[in-house]
Amino acid sequence: MKNKSLALLLLAGLTGCSQPSTSPEASAPAAGKNETLYVNSRLVDCVGVAPMKCMQVRQSPDAQWELFYTQIEGFEFTPGYRYKLQVNVSELENVPADASSLRYVLVKQLEKTKA
């Protein structure tokens, strides 16, 4: 009887220490919106927190190129090619002051053409 009581006590103690499981939905970032980005064929010098190389992007074929200081998750840039990408853009919370508050994730590479 004493062994059963001890086993139940240990089991109750271990159960109380277990961490609650979280569903993937709870830890996933909020769904953002899809956008089309055009990426130029070369990296250019830019200054963020420190000097670095940035992509040049625009949101339409006739818009001006703009410096893009962050990364697109899932996208690997190859110099000498222009890209048309579909990306998902979502807002991040509690980011450092020197970081982007937007997260870019590649949804689909729509075009890749030699420059």
SSE blueprint and pairings:
Elements: H1 2-17, H2 24-27, E1 33-39, E2 44-47, E3 51-58, E4 66-68, E5 72-73, E6 81-91, E7 102-114
Parallel strand pairs: 5-7
Antiparallel strand pairs: 1-3, 1-6, 2-3, 3-4, 6-7
Write structural notes for this entry:
This protein has one domain. It has 2 helices and 7 strands. It has helices at residues 2-17, 24-27, and strands at residues 33-39, 44-47, 51-58, 66-68, 72-73, 81-91, 102-114. Strands 1, 2, 3, 4, 5, 6 and 7 form a 7-stranded mixed β-sheet that branches. Strand 2 (44-47) and strand 3 (51-58) form a beta hairpin. The protein is globular, with a radius of gyration of 24 Å.
Give me some keywords for this one.
single chain; 115 residues; alpha+beta; 2 helices; 7 strands; 42% strand; globular
